[in-house]
Amino acid sequence: MEIRFVTPEARGAGALAVVVGVDGGMGATARAIDEASGGLLRRALELAGLPLDRGQIVDVVVPAAAGWDRVLLWAVPTPEVLPVKDAVELGAGLATAALARKLERLTLLVEAAGDAVTLGLVEGTALRSYRFDQFKPAKTNGAKKLAALNVATPHAVALAAAWPAREAVVAGTHLARDLVNRPANSLDTDAFVAAAKELTSLGVEVTVLDRAAMAELGMGALLGVAQGSRMPPYTVLMHWRGAGDDRAPLALVGKGVVFDSGGLSLKPPKSMETMKCDMAGAATVVGALHALARRQAKANVVGAIGLVENMPSSTAQRPGDVVTSLAGKTIEVLNTDAEGRLVLADVLAHVKATQKPQAMIDFATLTGAIIVALGYEHAGLFANDDDLAAKLLDAGEATGETLWRMPLGKGYTKQLESPIADLKNIGKPGQAGASIGAAFLEAFVGDGPWAHVDLAATSFTESEHPVGGRGGTGWGVRLVDRLVQDAFEG
């Protein structure tokens, strides 16, 4: 979507959305338009009944003399001090209204809001305007969609300068959504590597470890997951160096299982329908690196993703197999459908040993148990460091990509004891599965701040969500950007 910031004018063409208070209050330009329409705007507000509901839109067809075809009076409560998170969600609501009215172009008049709120409104509109139409172009190419937004504001110059940084985050979110939405026959491990390599155009250094390189390093846990598939496994490292060379990086690690059949511990067919999404953690990492590099974040960040396909075959890993991880720990694999933790174990250990990060955060659709625990409202947060956890929780509250802290502890670790290996990859059925998965990962991160984000509930949705439609949500990109901005830049 093309977005421009312009100076407010009382006359224009096409559709105009006007930010008004819930009490019907209008700015000077809006009052001029109301006067030109013979008081039609004020009359429409009164007939709608004041106070208006938050986000309510009153649609008014105005006379040609007013200079616009239609005016959407959009109720935004206290736009001067509205939290940015709320502004983003309201902006998404405006995009929904525009799409419902099949508007291709829209002018948004914002007179009283602070700059951060205005940017939030625009960001939400851009996020909600996303559409994944790669596989139905004949149907959608002729469909109406919001293609251009002119933002009329007294602060047009300042906002035009500030917008590219927010646009970068929107683009990173859309990239993550695209990756999650692509089916496994479109986004296999080779295609995912190609998508990661596109970050080089933004100044990101990309290094790819293939099967031979990982075997030489001893990444037996990851390679065990991959051995049942014809698709080659990879570990991809992506470096954004926006700060001095003497500053240790923040490490972002993502689970990239491009399709998860469960392996020989085969999932039921219904459970496989959305398993193209089991790479959402890796998508979050790639989308976040895109956003940070595009906005030239003043931070050092390394992203690492483990890419595999988990399939049953005559060469597949068997329940009961024992593999040796890069860290040297042996793992009894009792359930091949608990594969994401095996992939992450090796990638986390590799990143810890080679990158020496100041903090490490992994993102993974790790467990269905987190959905049982939290529903679809939050991602699960596990951390060995209270300060890092607090920073992540704050970033989640600021962006609306909220987290809920979950427990770790010796009781969960004890469930992973194996009689024949250093540990096994599952605990007792029905007992704190999300915490068991996190406890397994904790065994491979060593010392230093680490957090695990289980985004199984938030990465894909079958229904509308606050800033998007069905499908991949791009969850976590905005969270990471805010975390880096608040805690790792400067």
Q: Topology of this protein?
A:
Blueprint: E1 2-6, E2 15-20, H1 28-36, H2 40-48, E3 57-61, E4 70-75, H3 84-100, E5 105-109, H4 115-128, H5 137-140, E6 148-152, H6 156-181, H7 189-197, E7 205-209, H8 211-217, H9 220-226, E8 234-241, E9 250-260, H10 269-272, H11 280-294, E10 300-310, E11 321-324, E12 330-333, H12 340-355, E13 359-364, H13 369-374, E14 379-383, H14 386-399, E15 403-405, H15 410-414, E16 423-424, H16 433-442, E17 450-454, E18 460-461, E19 471-472, H17 477-488
Q: How much of the sequence is in beta strands? A: 15-25%
Taken from the alpha-carbon principal axes, the silhouette is: elongated
Query: What is the name of the CATH class of the largest domain?
Result: Alpha Beta
- Within the largest sheet, what's the order of strands? 7-8-10-9-13-17-14-15
Largest sheet: 8 strands, mixed
* Count of strand segments: 19
So how many helices?
A: 17
Number of domains: 2
Uncertain regions: pLDDT < 50 for 5+ in a row?
none
Q: Roughly what percent helix?
A: 25-40%
Which value, in Å, is the CA radius of gyration? 24 Å
- The chain-level mean pLDDT equals 97
Per CATH, the superfamily of the largest domain is Zn peptidases
CATH topology of the largest domain: Aminopeptidase
The CATH architecture designation of the largest domain is: 3-Layer(aba) Sandwich
Question: How far apart are the termini?
Answer: 31 Å
Protein structure class: alpha/beta
Task: List its salient traits.
490 residues; Leucine Aminopeptidase, subunit E, domain 1; Aminopeptidase; 2 domains; 8-stranded mixed beta sheet; 20% strand
